């Protein structure tokens, strides 16, 4: 993982950097701090959550410190980059330090110069990279070697028509000096516009388009899949909102929100999620949100079985509607029960839970509407058991990991079980031996 982080850092600019400045990353020179949060939609929880965050501090437009974090269900991993410079403001060293989690290990990157040009980059304990230049001072070749002197990568630069317009080929080798990966890139004004890559088994091509400010707006693959980027800017034309969209795979959409601090203390942007921006660019989320708003305006009369109906189609297809024939299919989550062939339906409109007995059984009649049984719980949590008395915990459209809970008999009533969520919140499962296998039952607060 550490090498991936380094590769990401150095791939932002076209080739060997002698400085790291705000302008290299699209920010104005008066920026002193940039905070970014990247959000992705989590289908299990049906919300946008922070997946990565980046906080970068600048000093007189030069990178000083960068903190990166990735967030998981189990916690987070955090690491920091520290930048130091020579007197002529060329980069002297970058030190990476893991703060917590498994985000790589302590790594030092040192830069050596000759006649004002970067001559060697040393990643301590990993590799050395040497740089060669042509008569005009343009970078001509990079040679990366491992600690034993074996060549692991060679990059050639050629066809210069301007200092930042050229072509580049890069070849990677394994320990047996066999070619494992080859890339060819075309750069215009420092931006890659065409990239072809070939491994031992695959070949692919990407094309890139940019706006007039150099921001990436379109990335097209040779299989016709694509990525599209949309931005919002502050008064100084710095990016404060970024949408990265994958039309063929909307579940991969991501949205980045940026807070920028300027040298005079003023602030623009915010790292909080902006749902209006998301709805503007994410058609799937916009339609879903529109359905939610529409359905929440509907008032229902009392019904002991609830207000939703379920239809089973072919294969795993299903439809859900209310008693007024409003389509709820896109605002519910249908989950197979871990016991028998039942289905559990979570409705986002009112956060209600519904039960469909034996929905996944072959005997369940297709192409016919059935009333869903609505179930309720004062805690919003439910439980069920299987034939071997194994307990399953359900909440808001998903079964929770039982590793996070402890269960023991309730001292005040031997028929009940005491459930603890690991943060000292006690819950009660009532009459455990008397309930029906595979059916949902409410969990009570102790």
Sequence-ordered SSE layout with sheet pairings:
Layout: H1 2-11, E1 31-42, E2 47-59, E3 62-72, E4 75-85, E5 91-100, E6 107-114, E7 117-123, E8 127-133, E9 139-146, E10 151-162, E11 165-173, E12 179-188, E13 191-199, E14 203-210, E15 216-221, E16 226-233, E17 239-245, E18 254-262, E19 267-269, H2 275-281, H3 283-295, E20 308-312, E21 318-322, E22 332-336, E23 343-347, E24 352-356, E25 369-371, E26 373-375, E27 381-385, E28 391-395, E29 398-400, E30 406-410, E31 413-420, E32 426-429, E33 441-442, E34 444-445
Antiparallel strand pairs: 1-2, 1-18, 2-3, 3-4, 4-5, 5-6, 6-7, 7-8, 8-9, 9-10, 10-11, 11-12, 12-13, 13-14, 14-15, 15-16, 16-17, 17-18, 18-19, 20-21, 20-25, 22-23, 23-24, 24-26, 27-28, 27-33, 28-29, 30-31, 31-32, 32-34
Helix pairs in contact: 2-3
In summary, what is this structure?
This protein has 2 domains: 2-125 and 202-284, no CATH class; 308-445, no CATH class. 7% of the residues lie in helices and 52% in strands. The chain has helices at 2-11, 275-281, 283-295, and strands at residues 31-42, 47-59, 62-72, 75-85, 91-100, 107-114, 117-123, 127-133, 139-146, 151-162, 165-173, 179-188, 191-199, 203-210, 216-221, 226-233, 239-245, 254-262, 267-269, 308-312, 318-322, 332-336, 343-347, 352-356, 369-371, 373-375, 381-385, 391-395, 398-400, 406-410, 413-420, 426-429, 441-442, 444-445.
